[in-house]
């Protein structure tokens, strides 16, 4: 095989979307440690596209991703990848100040947000306890994502553009000589002048292997489970999210998908659910529901990896040819189209695409040397 122009490490949604976009103008190889791309965070999400979620940069990246998803990734996906869902951000009486503050923050970007009173809330989700929610913000722009189809569409698009995915190819050692990066992997040696670090929860560890200072990435466990609420589930119910993000639930496969919205810091690993987190979520959800959780037939957990300012890290590192694409947190699927395009533009031209600049984003918002990351020192990533 001839040498690629660019090697992307990690075939989750971040690496797959960036590899696809880069392959429009370069020869790309995508390396994945597991035999199944999507085995880690990408395959474990709650699959929600929530324009109201996250900080200013996240909301802009999400808005910039919508059209590509609506266009079925420019026809790469056979069917729609966004489905109607809607979201209710609910508040108990003691949480009303938080809901008011959230409305003030979100309204300029989401003018369609509607303030609902208790009767309007119950009309939308019959199974809520009548005395629980004092008010809610309804966001009709929230949708469900078909994550498996999106991820496969990116990988198919990469192959159609002449790119290559290599699985069972854990990168174990990196070195750079005469402008070429050499990567020793479980599937042999690969070389290219440019490496993109899309290793998810392991991105700091990969950086340290490359002699690059870590960005302070903290993988945080999030637990999810399917449950039977003891009522027939209406598949048209919106996602119900506690305004302080203490729990959420939404219809999924005839049941409800619930989460305590936990954020337990952990070293990068194949994370498993903790029974205490499931019990905590059930307790919080039962306080909001007019019924009791009957069965929990399935539970799982995944890592959402954040840097200090909870904004992704994209762009060059201090070592020539080694680029960051990390810290997608709890928003990596909904922001993937914009982040993939931004990665391709920043890596090939040094600047963000014009459509992202027009929204008010700049490369500095995402750069690895931004002040929000604090002081970075060469050394060790969190142990794994
Ligand atoms: C419970 C839960 C709910 C979520 N809900 C949502 C949601 O509703 N909406 C949303 O947008 N986001 C959601 N997220 C977040 C989203 O899943 C992540 O932001 C996203 O999947 C991160 O993608 P990634 O490609 O960076 O990481 P990953 O999918 O983890 O991919 C990284 C890949 O790198 C590989 N790798 C690591 N080290 C190496 C190496 N040395 N060599 C080769 N390969 C390597 C790994 O094997 C892995 O496959 C949720 C996450 C969780 C856990």
List key phrases describing it.
single chain, 384 residues, alpha+beta, FAD/NAD(P)-binding domain, D-Amino Acid Oxidase, Chain A, domain 2, 2 domains, nine-stranded mixed beta sheet, 11 helices, 27% strand, binds flavin-adenine dinucleotide
Describe what is shown at a glance:
The protein is α+β, with helices and mostly antiparallel strands and 384 residues long. The chain folds into 2 domains: 6-66 and 147-217 and 309-373, 3-Layer(bba) Sandwich (FAD/NAD(P)-binding domain); 87-140 and 225-302, D-Amino Acid Oxidase, subunit A, domain 2 (D-Amino Acid Oxidase, Chain A, domain 2, 2-Layer Sandwich). Helix content is 27%, strand content 27%.
The residue ranges in which pLDDT falls below 50 over 5 or more consecutive positions are: none
Helix content: 25-40%
Main sheet characteristics:
9 strands, mixed
Oligomer: single chain
Number of helices: 11
Total strand segments: 21
CATH topology of the largest domain: FAD/NAD(P)-binding domain
Gross geometry? globular
What does the radius of gyration come to? 21 Å
Distinct ligands: flavin-adenine dinucleotide
Count of the domains: 2
Question: From the helix content, strand content and strand pairing, which structural class follows?
Answer: alpha+beta
Q: Calculate the mean pLDDT score and round it.
A: 96
How far the N terminus sits from the C terminus, by CA atoms, comes to 33 Å
